[in-house]
Design a protein that fits this description.
The protein is α/β, with parallel strands linked by helices and about 350 residues long. It has helices at about 10-20, 25-35, 50-60, 130-145, 170-180, 200-210, 225-230, 235, 240-250, 270-280, 305-320, and strands spanning about 1-5, 60, 65-70, 75-80, 90-95, 100-105, 105-110, 125, 155-160, 195, 215-220, 255-265, 285-290, 320-325. A ten-stranded mixed sheet has the order 3-4-5-6-9-10-11-12-13-14, with helices on one face. A two-stranded parallel sheet has the order 1-2. Strands 7-8 form a two-stranded antiparallel ribbon. Strand 13 (about 285-290), helix 11 (about 305-320) and strand 14 (about 320-325) form a beta-alpha-beta unit. The chain is elongated and about 70 Å long. The structure holds S-adenosyl-L-homocysteine (SAH). S-adenosyl-L-homocysteine binds near residues 112, 116, 160 and 294. Belongs to the radical SAM superfamily. RlmN family.
């Protein structure tokens, strides 16, 4: 038995054709799964009974068991999902003014070993399947619908949960296919989905060639010595290689790459660092998201004072850099950037 959520529309169409069933039936099934959020084959009432029976014989409809859900004072919700093999991942549902954003995981654990990130402490377990990636979106939309809210109001996705999306490239790409499918899939707008990477340079270029999606890059430092000490990935693709890949990244003329920059007190938050950041990014169509460090017991770093954060931001703005301070939501339930762990480490 296979998880039907692990099948692209193309895969499913071929499976149907091999069975002598016309392809449009596969499109119907796909729509039930990814748009109408069905949770059984019986629900798919525009298919004949025989076909529904056949589907149930060959496939199961993968579910992510909801092990726990926490709600923040700011209404952000964190879901802890238990996967079929007992691994855990988290996703975070963030209410905005007029829509919801879902922060999605692509791996159980993470292998990148960034020194400031709690997910790193769990180590790497495994890549998520496409079914497990799109399953997080399906489940969150089902949750929204259960609250009596239009499920498509979950309109934005950030691949900023656990794991390195570009290290699970094939499943990421297949998932994006379902997410962007406006005919039979999840109908997300390309402008509303962002993939964030710690900086796997060759995969950045590849992503721009293979699909159209917003790119975010976790930069976090302006010189190689510091960046390598914080993010081991920098030893393989140092800042020059990373930024060269960003320049090559194909995007619409008006789009910009988001550079995430965690502000850590006394580490990377001086005026000189801000000037360096402007210098590095000025040749690139870039905007900067400053993320005040979310403190946790597993890392020694501290969040800078509000004055320091504002001074840093002001330098960027005065140099005509597009920049904002990103408010991490869900801090009180460990749902903020860098706080996902999905396992008990104390
Ligand atoms: N692996 C991808 C996706 C994870 S995104 C990536 O690195 O981009 C998670 C974001 O949170 C990254 O920008 C990371 O730099 C940031 N982050 C990690 N730990 C953090 C912390 N403790 N406080 C604030 N931001 C953090």
């Amino acid at each position: 038995m296979k998880d039907i959520l692990d099948f692209t529309r193309q895969d499913l169409g071929e499976w149907f054709e091999n069975k002598g069933i016309r392809r449009f039936r596969a499109d119907q099934v796909f729509k039930w799964l990814h748009l109408k959020l069905a949770d059984s084959f019986e629900e798919m009432t525009d298919l004949g009974k025989a076909l529904r029976g056949e589907l149930a014989e060959h496939f199961f409809l993968g579910t992510l068991e909801l092990e726990n859900m926490e709600t923040s004072v700011d209404a952000t919700k964190k879901f802890l999902h238990r996967l079929a093999d007992g691994e855990y991942v988290e996703s975070v549902l963030i209410p905005e003014k007029e829509h919801y954003t879902l922060c999605v995981s692509t791996q159980a654990g993470c292998a990148m070993n960034c020194k400031f990130c709690l997910t790193a402490k769990t180590g790497f377990k495994r890549n998520l399947t496409m079914g497990e990636i799109v399953g997080q979106v399906r489940d969150a939309r089902r949750f929204v619908a259960q609250q009596g809210i239009e499920p498509l109001s979950l309109s934005n996705i950030v691949f900023m949960g656990m794991g390195e999306p570009l290290a699970n490239y094939d499943n990421l790409l297949r998932s994006l296919g379902v997410i962007f499918d406006t005919d039979f899939g999840m109908k997300f707008s390309r402008r509303k989905v962002t993939v964030s990477t710690s900086g796997i340079a060759p995969k950045i270029i590849q992503l721009g060639l293979d699909t159209e999606v917003n790119l975010a890059v976790s930069l976090n430092a302006t010189d190689n010595e510091l960046r390598s000490s914080l993010m081991p990935v920098n030893r393989t693709w140092p800042i020059e290689a990373l930024l060269a890949a960003c320049k090559e990244f194909e995007m619409k003329p008006r789009n910009k790459i988001t550079f995430e920059y965690i502000l850590m007190s006394g580490v990377n938050d001086s005026d000189a660092h801000a000037h360096d950041l402007v210098r590095l990014l000025s040749p690139i169509r870039a905007k900067v998201n400053l993320i005040p460090f979310n403190e946790h017991p597993q890392a020694p770093f501290k969040r800078p004072s509000r004055d320091r954060i504002n001074a840093f931001l002001t330098i960027l703005l005065n140099r005509n850099m597009t920049a904002i301070v990103r408010k991490s939501k869900g801090d009180d339930i460990s749902a903020a950037c860098g706080q996902l762990k999905a396992a008990r480490i104390e």
